[in-house]
Every structure is written in C-alpha cells, then in structure tokens.
Design brief:
The complex is a heterodimer of chains A (672) and B (86). Chain A is 62% helix and 8% strand. Chain A is of the alpha/beta class and 672 residues long. Among the domains of chain A are: 162 residues, P-loop containing nucleotide triphosphate hydrolases (Rossmann fold); 60 residues, Helix Hairpins. In chain A, the strands form two sheets. Chain A has a seven-stranded mixed beta sheet, sandwiched between helices. In chain A, strand 5, helix 3 and strand 6 form a beta-alpha-beta unit. Chain A starts with a strand and ends with a helix. With 86 residues, chain B is α+β, with helices and mostly antiparallel strands. Chain B has one domain: Orthogonal Bundle (Arc Repressor Mutant, subunit A). Helix content of chain B is 44%, strand content 13%. Chain B is globular, with a radius of gyration of 16 Å. The two termini of chain B are 16 Å apart. The chains are: A alpha/beta (672), B alpha+beta (86). The interface between A and B is large, with 63 and 56 residues.
C-alpha cells in the first residue's frame, strides 16, 4: 500500500467542499494557487494507517480555457502529482455534472466518481442504476451523502484501489468521423514528440481550437517542426469550427450515459410561463394579444381614473378655487391677483392636476404589467414587429420608455451601439405618445367620447406607433441604410407583481407629473396669463389681448383642420414647452372667458369643438412638434441643431396634414 | 447540443430554457450550462444595459427610478455565433 495524492474535482454546489472537510477535518491548509488569487485548499487524512494528501480544486463546470478556475483545475490534473481524481457529482443534477466527467475521461487519469447528495435526489424521486452507470463510464461510481459521512469510506477505498492498482483508463468517448479524422492527423504529427500531456487529449484540444494549448506546447519544448505543422493545421482550418462538434459530442455522451441509468419521475416540463408565452410571443397572436392587453388597460384607466376618480379630483380643485376666490375677495385683493390665482393657477394649472387620478391608475396598471414580466413579452413582440420595419436591435426599449416620456426615451438610445438604429430610434420616438399628452386626450374624450374612452385612447397610441414604424421604414431605406445588430432576449418567468414595486412605479410617475405641473406648466401658464390679460385697454382673455392677437394671427393655419379659434391655436403652441400646458391654457382661457357663467372646462370644450374637430385636434397633438425638452435632448445627442429643427418642422407638417385629412374626410363623410 | 441551442434561440428570437429543454429532450440545468458555455466561448454575449447612462440630469428626472432599461436581459449573437448558424 502506498500513500498518495487525491484531487477533488466537481461543479460548484456539488458538495465537493463538504466532502473535502469530511475527509480532512481540521488537517487543512488554505493558501492561493501560484500567481493568482484563487484559493487553494489542501489537507490530509489517514486511512488504515497510511496518510493521503487531498487537494480541493476550484469548483468548475468544465475544463476549458475560459477562466482562471478552469485553467487551474485543468493544469493541476494534467501536470500535478495527483494519483487519483475524485469527481464529486451532484446526483440530482447528474447530466449537467457529467459534462465535466467526460472532460476528465479525456485526460485518461485515474478517476472515481462520488455520486453525492443522493438524499436530495431521492427526495426528488430520482433513481439510479449505479452498476450500469459505472459500466457506461468505465470508472467506479459510488453513491455518497457527504454531510452525513455516508459512502465516504467506500469512495476512499475505491480511490486507494485505483492508486495501488495503477489503472489506466481509456477514454470511451469518440467524436464524429470528421473530427476523429483530424484528431488522428494531429496524433500522427505528435506521435514521436515528448509531451507533457496525453497525446490524444492534446490532439483533441488542438482540433477544438483551445486558445492556451499552443502556448503550453511551446513552453514545454515541443519541436519546431511539430509546432509548425500544427500551425499549418490551424491556418488551413481557420474557417472551420470543430469546437461545437466536440462539445456536442461530450453532451451526447453524458446524455447517453444518463439514459436508463438515471430514472426521473415523469413531470410537466412545460411551465405556466411557457404556456402563456405560446400566446404572448406567438408570431401571429403576439401583437393582437398585446393590443388586447393595452385596450383593457386604457378602458380600466378611463373607467376608474377618469369616470370614477376624475370627478372627485375636479370637484376638489373647483372647491379649492371657489374657497380661494372668496378668501381673496374677502381680503379685497386686486382683481388682477384674483384673476391670476383663480384663472391662471386654479383653472390653468389645476386643470392639469385634475388628471392625477388618471395618471395614477394608468401607471398602476402599467407597473403591474411590468412587474409581472409581461412587458418583456411586449418588448419581444415589438422587437419582432420592428425588425419587419427595418429597425432591429434594442431600439424597442427606448421606444417603450418614450411612451412614458420622450426625453429619457431619446437618452436611452445611447445604449444602442449601432449608429443607424440609434438615429432612427431618436427620430421616431417623438411619435410615441407620452404621458404628458394623456390629459389632453382625456379632456376631449370626457367631452365627446366618454363611452369609448379606452378605444379612442388605444387608437391614438396605435396611430402614433404606426406612423413611427412607417417613418422608420422610410429612414431605413433612405437616410440610414445599413445592417443592424442581432439580438436575442431572455424573457423572465411570469411572476406575481409585488405591491411595493407597483406602487412605487405609480408614485414615481404621479409625483413627476405633479412636479411638472408645479414648475414648467406653472411658468408657461403664468406667462400666457400675462399675455391674456394685457394690455389693460383690451378685455382680458379676448382676441384683443396680446395672446388673442397672436392666436388670431395663427388661426388661418388651423382652419383647414377644423379648429379655427385663437384659443385652440395658442394652446397648441403652449404645448411646445410642455404638452400638459395645452390643457392648462384652454382651462385658463375658457375660465377667463366664461368667468361669469362658471362654465367648467369640459363644457367649454363642448361649446368650442365638435366630435370631429376634437378628433382632428387630438391627431394634431399626437403627431406634432415634440416638447422643447425633447428637442433639446435631440440637439444634445446629435450634437447639432439640424436634427431637432428637422424633427420640429417635419412633425408639425405631418401632424397638420393628418389633422386636416381627418377633418376634411370626416366632413365629406358627414361626421361632426 | 450547443449548436441546437444556438439555432433554436436564433430561430425563436427569445430564450426560454424550459422550452429548449423540452425541445432538445434534456434537462433545464443542462440547457442552462450549455447557454453559459455559449457565452463563455464567445458565441453569444450578454448585452450589458447600463443602469446609469452617464446622464447628469438623471437625478433630477422624474422618470429616473423607473427608466426601464432592464425590461429583459438581452444577448447579442457574436460574429463567431453567426458563423455557426449561417
């Protein structure tokens, strides 16, 4: 009997470290492998009065050349002084673990398998034919439960037998004919060479294209002639790739070894996630499913956010306005101040704040969808759809972000490394109807389309998407032709959304909406209010005020689209600093105009619009010039004034044409 | 097997390890390991979506918390991977 050195090899989480600890107890020493920061664990144990050394190699899934751990394990097995390798395998995951075993077999060393964690396998009703498995692999296989010290002694005995009998193992794995031919060719080159490794293993590595093997051969003093022939081999086969063939053969061998020797219970391998994905990611059903989901979201948003809660918000703000007005009158506040507070702030900015419940419900539902994992499926469906319009890559993510706000959507195009995709995404994101436009749509829908709110909203968003896609196609063919990147998405499993995440998403968006109302919209409304009440010689809020004069000048431009009053024209331009300001502006102007009558905004809208002109106005809002912040970001990202100018002009022109078309065709057909 | 995984994920455009396991008649953990090997060997690479795009206005942006840059994990097929499937 002789003492010897044992190396432990195995996948991470196979119980290898527990095995090592049970073997060595406190007789361990921890250091580092030379030249690297990877931990080296060595120990010893005594069995039948003979001392054995144990080296615990780093846990690794394979023995390639892709990581430090793999290289350390591989080099030690090949060139170290281990007399036997104990391959610790997780019995409940045997097929995955056997890949490493096949690579160990290629090294033609003494190997014993410790089939560990058999208790866990038993819990999962996995059964083994140990004898048959051992026969197929050609090496001893011993079941163990390391943490209970079960089977350890049998493994030690098998390892010691292997040391004492000095067995050699022939690699039972054979590759396909094509690969075997090349392996034999390399073996022929190396046959008279003194090698530090087994010849066949070296030949396999060379054919596999292992990046480190040539360095090792040169370092170990292999002759120039052999090195040169091997380099010729690489040059001749530079376009071939045998790597995957070899790896697939190993997997096939592992699979065959596990076949009939590892018996698992019949189980449902297709999960609920996969069943749902069959519909949500289906080539033909995916988009209709997405459309249906979004339609439901919009319907619920209106039913709850506008009809149920919106009225409460409006009443609260009206109440606050009335109370403030009475308070100011009580304190004999100047008329101008009363006008500013009531018309400007309450009816202007307040008109925007009234839509907070709508925003809250929408983002609650969207947060629910995102946290459930559905939005990843939506992103996949988008990606597939966009490829057909010439926009590949990850451009769908900035576009989906653009639905919340165009500004971060455009900023997110920075993550697209393909310049073409980036430019196209940047230029079509303004067609994604952002959250700021929602109050505008909601205002008109409440006035004219309250029974079909969800459908109208859905149609508007869909129209924006359609225009974006067509634009992308045109840009792809004209300004930005070129190849796109090729991406694959990993879909997370469906999960039950957490309340925390959903509420956080809702709050972030609601707070952002309120912040914008309190800052930029407040500033815009204040500025417009000043223009609307001055000069003092003109009646406030009339067409003779400064604002009225500007609006009157713009009116002819919009008359073909059906909305030819100065208030409507001015409100559109007020939407350029911030889209919500359209609602605020109309709220302020109509409040001022109908101050005495106390007409609320929705009724004022009914007085100034028809259902047809409301539609054409919404189409105009959907497609026209994006907000100033969006234009500024486009300028920043493209480092030019040219592109934001083009976007501003083209989107306005396109929106105008679309609005005119809606109105004129609608009129011809007898609508409105 | 790795070739089959690569071809299937390119064909489908998305990755579902359980569906792959069912189609290739193996276990999910083998697919997981095969997938990891494809990454290690450079046939596919994870497209690291940056959480912080380096924008100095993010702290002031109301959308910063839910910028949704990680809707899904994205992988890119490398030139090496394309050479195999072409």
């Amino acid at each position: 009997m002789k003492n010897g050195k044992i190396a432990l090899v195995g996948n991470p989480n196979s119980g290898k470290t527990t095995f090592f600890n049970v073997l060595t107890g406190s007789n361990q020493h921890v250091g580092n492998w030379p030249g690297v920061t990877v931990e080296k664990k060595e120990g010893r144990f005594t069995y039948e009065k003979i001392e054995y050394q144990v080296v615990d190699l780093p846990g690794t899934y394979s023995l390639g050349a892709f990581s430090e751990d793999e290289m350390i394990a591989r080099d030690y097995i090949l060139t170290g002084d281990a007399d036997v390798i104990i391959n610790v395998i997780d019995a409940s995951n045997i097929e995955r673990n056997l890949y490493l075993t096949t690579q160990l077999l290629e090294m033609e060393k003494n190997i014993v398998i410790a089939l560990n964690m058999t208790d866990e396998a038993e819990r999962r009703n996995i059964k083994f034919d140990i004898k048959e498995l051992s026969r197929k692999l050609g090496i001893p296989v011993i079941p163990t439960i390391a943490y209970k010290n079960t089977g350890i002694e049998e493994v030690i005995q098998a390892a010691i037998d292997a040391i004492n009998e000095e067995r050699t193992y022939k690699n039972p794995l054979r590759y396909n004919e094509h690969v075997e031919h090349h392996i034999e060719h390399i073996e022929e080159i190396l046959k008279d060479t003194v090698l530090p490794y087994p010849v066949r293993w070296t030949a396999i590595k060379i054919v596999e294209g292992d990046s480190k093997i040539m360095d090792r051969l040169e370092e170990s003093g292999v002759g120039e002639s052999s090195i040169s022939k091997i380099k010729d081999f690489y040059k001749f086969h530079s376009k071939d790739s045998f790597e995957l063939d070899i790896i697939d053969s190993r997997y096939a061998f592992a699979h065959k070894a596990a076949e009939n020797t590892v018996i698992r219970p019949e189980k449902e391998t297709v999960t609920l996630t996969d069943k749902l994905d069959k519909m949500f990611t289906n080539k033909y059903l995916g988009i209709p499913a997405f459309a249906a989901v979004m339609l439901i979201v919009f319907q619920l948003t209106f039913a709850v956010g506008e009809e149920l809660l919106g009225g409460i918000a409006a009443d609260l703000i009206d109440g606050l306005g009335g109370w403030l007005e009475n308070l100011l009158v009580l304190f004999n506040a100047p008329d101008l101040m009363v006008s500013f507070v009531v018309d400007g702030i309450i009816n202007g900015v307040g008109a925007v704040i009234e839509f907070v419940p709508l925003i809250a419900v929408l983002y609650l539902l969207l947060g629910f969808l995102e946290d459930s994992g559905y939005m990843a499926r939506a992103a996949y469906v988008w990606d597939d759809l966009m490829r057909r319009f010439g926009l590949q890559g990850r451009a769908f993510i900035p576009m989906i972000i653009g639905f919340g706000c165009n500004v971060p959507g455009i900023m997110a195009t920075r993550t697209l490394d393909n310049k073409k995709d980036r430019m196209i995404a940047m230029l079509i994101i303004p067609f994604m109807s952002c959250g700021a436009k929602l109050p505008i749509y909601s205002m008109f829908i409440a006035a004219f389309f309250s029974k079909h709110g969800g459908l109208i909203l859905f149609t508007l968003y869909a129209l924006g998407v359609l225009v974006a896609l067509i634009t992308a196609k045109l840009l792809n063919r004209t300004l930005f032709p070129g190849e796109s990147s090729y991406f694959i998405m990993e879909l997370p499993p469906f999960r039950i959304p957490t309340v925390r995440n959903v509420l956080r998403n809702m709050w972030d968006n609601v707070w952002g909406f309120i912040q914008r109302a309190g800052t930029i919209i407040f500033l815009v409304i204040t500025f417009l209010w000043v223009l609307a009440v001055f000069p003092v010689s003109a009646e406030p809020y009339s067409q003779f005020s400064y604002l009225g004069r500007i609006g009157t000048f713009l009116v002819p431009l919009f008359q073909p689209a059906g909305f030819g009053t100065w208030q409507e024209a001015v409100a559109l331009f007020a939407g350029i600093p911030a889209k919500e300001a359209v609602v605020g502006t109309l709220g302020m102007l109509y409040a001022g105009q109908y101050m005495e009558e106390g007409v609320i905004l929705v009724n004022a809208i009914k007085m100034h619009f028809t259902s047809l002109t409301a539609l054409s106005y919404m189409v105009m809002v959907l497609l026209y010039t994006p907000c100033a912040a969006t234009l500024a970001i486009i300028a920043k990202e493209t480092k030019s004034i040219k592109w934001p100018t083009i976007v501003a002009v083209i989107t306005f022109a396109l929106a105008w044409v679309a609005a005119v078309a809606v109105f004129q065709i609608g009129t011809l057909l007898g609508f409105g | 097997m790795l070739k089959d995984i690569l071809k299937t994920i390119v064909r489908d455009g998305y990755i579902s390890k359980s569906l792959l396991a069912a189609e290739l008649k193996t276990s999910e953990s083998v697919i997981e390991e095969g997938f990891n090997q494809l990454q290690r060997m450079g046939y596919i690479e994870k497209d690291e979506m940056v959480k912080d795009c380096g924008f100095d206005i993010c702290p002031g942006c109301s959308k910063a918390n839910n910028c949704q840059l990680e809707i899904a994990k994205i992988y890119k097929i490398t030139d090496k991977g394309r050479a195999v499937i072409s």
